[in-house]
């Protein structure tokens, strides 16, 4: 241990005080003081329970979450708040110390909770107050730099996705000017998912034929299956069977998301929240997916959608009347190739950004652990 540092139990450094319930009638959305839950500010109030800046520790639910307060506040009963001797310890040093200790790992129970005695038993190393403040200055600066780098990586990724979507919309809009136009119903066979009553919970089995849901269209993945039906139910609902090359479109809430069923996908059916489209001769499924993801189609279905609170795609009869550009197959193939080439570049950038973000997080933890073990030189 570095000279001038003391080994202590955390319970000798600080105390964790219980928060207190605050009835809803005593809360005010425009109140002066923040009301803290286990994972941050949950409400506001004109009253406060504790008047000094300190650290909030999640006690139940989001157990072990750490938040730093900057003035009077009200801690709810799912929290602890920290009390300590300000002549010996720096608030921000204690905040960083608690972050480094990763308190969520101490959580126990079905509804995760932290016993403060488990926190008190943790062994820590504490320097004198002056050294605590020096370390805090270094950590604050380092974390600002890492936070900026992480934000820049995320911004670059977001910009890349926006550029990709803009590029796709631009290609579709420009090239479709000279293409022949047909009705959607002329180029695809439509099958809307069965009525909800056809697939009750009692129908589901531990294994068997897959039941495809909105999540498969929204996330374009076909590996994770939650629900299955047996052979008898599958034969009964054969009309809704999914085949490789079919397009599945989400039809409620997050609507209009499209995925192409890949080769090798598990045999199964769609549920009530999906629309299955089987491309006819002369139309490529990947081309169709690109067009259905474009602004022109998304605007068309949004205009026709129904439902006030939760939007639902209009009836199949209406969808079939939407106009779709229908170029020669070689032009469809070229558009797919151009869009895929850009998608590869976006995927590469996404990988780089995620790697940078991961390294930033590792660096944050490394600097934090080194600083609080006395490993940072002047």
Task: Describe the structure in your own words.
It is a single chain. Helices cover 38% and strands 20% of the residues. It is of the alpha+beta class. The strands form six sheets. It has a four-stranded antiparallel sheet with strand order 2-8-5-6, covered by helices on one side. It has a four-stranded antiparallel sheet with strand order 11-18-15-16. The two termini are 17 Å apart.
Features:
20% strand; Adenine-n6-DNA-methyltransferase TaqI, Chain A, domain 2; 4-stranded antiparallel β-sheet; alpha+beta; 2 domains; single chain; 19 strands; elongated; 378 residues
Count of the separate structural domains: 2
Rg to the nearest angstrom? 29 Å
Which class of secondary structure composition applies to the elements? alpha+beta
How large a portion of the residues is in β-strands, by DSSP E? 15-25%
Kindly state the mean pLDDT as a whole number?
Answer: 88
Number of helices: 10
Quickly give the CATH architecture of the largest domain: Alpha-Beta Complex
CATH superfamily annotation of the largest domain: DNA methylase specificity domains
Share in helix:
25-40%
For the secondary structure, the number of strands is: 19
Strand order of the largest sheet: 2-8-5-6
Highest-level CATH class of the largest domain:
Alpha Beta
Please mark out the parts with pLDDT under 50 across 5 or more consecutive residues, or reply none.
none
Question: How is the biggest beta sheet arranged?
Answer: 4 strands, antiparallel
Shape: elongated
- And the CATH topology of the largest domain? Adenine-n6-DNA-methyltransferase TaqI, Chain A, domain 2
What is the string of helix and strand elements? EEEEEEEEHHEHEHEEHEHEEEEEHHHEH
Separation of termini? 17 Å
């Amino acid at each position: 241990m570095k000279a001038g540092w003391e080994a202590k139990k955390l319970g000798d450094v600080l105390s964790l005080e219980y928060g207190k319930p605050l009835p809803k009638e005593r809360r005010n959305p425009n109140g002066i003081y923040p009301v803290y839950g286990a994972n941050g500010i949950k409400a506001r109030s004109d009253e406060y329970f504790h008047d000094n800046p300190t650290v909030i520790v999640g006690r139940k639910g989001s157990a072990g979450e750490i938040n730093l307060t900057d003035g009077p506040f009200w801690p709810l009963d799912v929290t602890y708040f920290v009390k300590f001797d300000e002549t010996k310890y720096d608030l921000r040093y204690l905040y960083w110390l608690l972050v480094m200790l990763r308190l969520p790992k101490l959580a126990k129970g079905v509804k995760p909770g932290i016993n403060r005695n488990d926190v008190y038993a943790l062994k820590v190393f504490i320097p004198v107050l002056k050294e605590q403040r020096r370390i805090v200055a270094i950590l604050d600066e380092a974390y600002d730099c890492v936070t900026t780098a992480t934000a820049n990586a995320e911004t670059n990724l977001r910009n890349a996705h926006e550029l990709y979507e803009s590029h796709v919309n631009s290609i579709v809009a420009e090239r479709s000017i000279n293409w022949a136009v047909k009705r959607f119903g002329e180029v695809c066979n439509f099958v809307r998912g069965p009525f909800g009553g056809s697939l009750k919970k009692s129908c589901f089995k531990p294994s068997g034929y897959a039941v495809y849901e909105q999540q498969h269209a929204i996330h374009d993945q076909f590996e994770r299956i939650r629900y299955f039906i047996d052979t008898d139910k599958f034969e009964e609902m054969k009309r809704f069977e999914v085949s490789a090359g079919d397009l599945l479109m989400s039809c409620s809430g997050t609507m209009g998301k499209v995925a192409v069923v890949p080769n090798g996908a598990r045999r199964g059916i769609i549920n009530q929240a999906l629309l299955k489209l089987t491309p006819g001769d002369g139309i490529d499924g990947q081309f169709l997916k690109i067009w259905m993801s474009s602004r022109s189609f998304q605007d068309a279905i949004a205009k026709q959608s129904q439902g006030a609170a939760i939007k639902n795609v209009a009836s199949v009869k209406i969808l079939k009347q939407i106009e779709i550009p229908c170029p020669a197959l070689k032009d469809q193939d070229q558009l797919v190739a151009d869009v895929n080439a850009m998608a590869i570049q976006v995927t590469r950038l996404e990988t780089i950004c995620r790697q940078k973000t991961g390294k930033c997080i590792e660096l944050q933890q490394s600097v934090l652990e080194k600083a609080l073990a006395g490993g940072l030189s002047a």
